[in-house]
Amino acid sequence: MDKLLIEGGHRLQGEARMSGAKNAALPILCAALLSREPLTLTNVPQLNDIGTMLKLLSQMGVAVQQDGSTVTLDASGLNNPVAPYEMVKTMRASILVLGPLVARCGEARVSLPGGCAIGARPVDQHIKGLASMGADVSVEHGYVVARTTRLRGARLFTDMVTVTGTENLMMAATLAEGETVIENAAREPEIVDLANCLVSMGARISGAGSDVIRIQGVDRLHGATHRIMPDRIETGTYLCAAAATGGEIRLTGTSAAYLDAVVDKLMDAGCDIRTEKSPSFEAIVLRAPERLKAVSIRTSPYPAFPTDMQAQFMAINTVADGTAVIRETIFENRFMHAVELARLGADIRIDGNTAVVQGVAQLDGATVMATDLRASAGLIIAGLVANGETLIERIYHLDRGYEHIEQKLTALGATVRRVS
Ligand code: EPZ
Predict the structure, then answer these.
(1) Residue of the nearest CA to atom 41 in ligand 1?
(2) pLDDT at 281 over 90
(3) CA distances (Å), 130 to each of 38, 124, 175, 178, 196, in order?
(4) Which atom of ligand 1 is nearest to 22's Cα?
(5) Which of 164, 235, 376, 402 to mutate to test the pocket of ligand 1 (most atoms within 8 A of CB)?
(6) Is 116 a catalytic residue?
């Protein structure tokens, strides 16, 4: 198993180019199932999760061509609307094939994702929404089994804001009979990117990005070409790494537009952040203070502070000046990085979904273990500021969501290398 060896104490300086957003690319790859014509995607990040999704789609009969960050999918030969447990258990986002398969084939057999490190993460809202649209949906031997002649438009109200739930139901509704209204919809930018792609395929969608999305069903969708939006969580992660190390970096191929809550908190912590914009170009420049001020955060659905940035902010607060209170309101078990940070000398007290972080003068390198994708990012940030060497184990979590992370960090002046 690969590990990451980091020698701390180097300020991050220089420039890095951000990749396409994993959490936009995953649902958009599934949108290809909705059409008999090819969907070509550009700026697709080269990540393990993307590879897993492409394997899942090709075993369904989708023809996949990948050339670097350009992927073309042709679902005209779709003949196996099944997502087997062996594949789904390695990536929960596989559930995103459910809505498109029911809409396109009138049937689907998708393994339940099962829990993951950060929480139970059920998919009851996905199932409830499809049933409201007229599908017969049951759970049999660990699989969601759905069938319908044709989905009917309906008024859907999810019990809580769910990102992939909104995405699944929006995709299903594009081919339903009549109008579907999704109330209490998630507002994440990745949902807007998915809606833009679906509209370019001929779907009729309005309100994406707000909490009410209206979809007028059509008979079929055609092919299209779509560029995946930049990854706002990758961007926020590198901003935090530079902030914690007292560095100064310039991130290109990305936008500050979707990171207001994160940028505000980094500015509260004492960072100077500005964006460079031209008609064809945008970059974010961050200059960090000598020492950050502690900043408290409370995770909530977009546009509030994203849960996927919580571990990174816990990391920067471990060496900030003061005390930070971190409230995690989305997932029930997303503090596993705290005990690993404590191995580096962090002072963190957990009480339910609240963590109190008392900034310390310095961290000391140690061996730590990654537990989930964003926790890994938090450990990297801590390793970059810790005295001496930090060895991070189980970094397969990292490879799921951060493209070429060693190369990008090394280009920014970090001393980091992968060891087996
Ligand atoms: C998406 O997960 C992201 N994944 C997650 O990013 C992100 O952390 C999460 O949204 C929250 O922003 C992708 O987009 C592929 P939810 P998702 O449904 O859709 C509960 C990463 O690091 N819920 O918005 O699975 C659920 O348990 C990943 O890239 C139900 O109870 O999250 C959670 O407590 C991690 N029933 C809350 O809602 C349901 O049917 C929000 O979950 C659906 C969700």
Answers:
(1) 162
(2) no
(3) 26, 10, 12, 14, 22
(4) 29
(5) 164
(6) yes
Among 29, 124, 159, 163, which residue has the most ligand 1 atoms within 8 Å of its CB, making it the best to mutate? 163
- Residue 343 has a pLDDT of 98
Q: How confident is the model at residue 402 (pLDDT cuts 50, 70, 90)?
A: very high
**pLDDT class of 39 with cuts at 50, 70, 90:** very high
Pairing of strands 39-42, 3-7: unpaired
pLDDT higher than 70, residue 168: yes
Contacts of 270 (CB under 8 A, 6+ apart): 288, 289, 291, 292, 293
Give the separation between CA 76 and CA 99, rounded to whole angstroms. Answer: 17
Does residue 106 contact residue 149 with C-beta atoms inside 8 Å?
yes
* pLDDT confidence of residue 113: 86
Q: How far apart are CA 33 and CA 188, in angstroms?
A: 22
Supply the mean pLDDT for the chain.
96
Q: What is the pLDDT of residue 131?
A: 98
Coil/strand/helix, residue 130: helix
Q: Whose CA is nearest to atom 35 of ligand 1?
A: 308
- Tell me the one-letter amino acid at 353: N
Tell me how crowded residue 121 is: count the other CB atoms within 10 A of its CB.
Answer: 16
Q: Which residues line ligand 1 (CB under 6 A)?
A: 23, 26, 93, 119, 121-126, 160, 162-165, 307-308, 330-331, 373-374, 401
Which residue's CA is the closest to the ligand 1 atom numbered 24? 162
Look at residues 275, 271, 327, 272 and name the one whose alpha carbon lies nearest to residue 296. Answer: 327
Query: How far is it, in rounded angstroms, from Cα 288 to Cα 294?
Result: 13
Integer Cα distance of 248 and 376 in angstroms: 22
**58-95 exposure pattern, b = at least 16 Cβ within 10 A, e = fewer:** eebebebeeeebebbbbbeebeebbbebebbebbbbbb
Task: Kindly give the distance from the C-alpha atom of residue 127 to the centroid of ligand 1, in angstroms, as a whole number.
Answer: 15
Dihedral sign for Cα atoms in the order 402, 407, 413, 416: positive
Tokens of 211: 């909490």
Nearest CA to ligand 1 atom 44: 162
Nearest-atom index, ligand 1, CA of 121: 27
Gap between the Cα atoms of 246 and 13, Å rounded: 9
Read off the pTM.
Answer: 0.97
Contact 80, 60 (CB under 8 A): yes
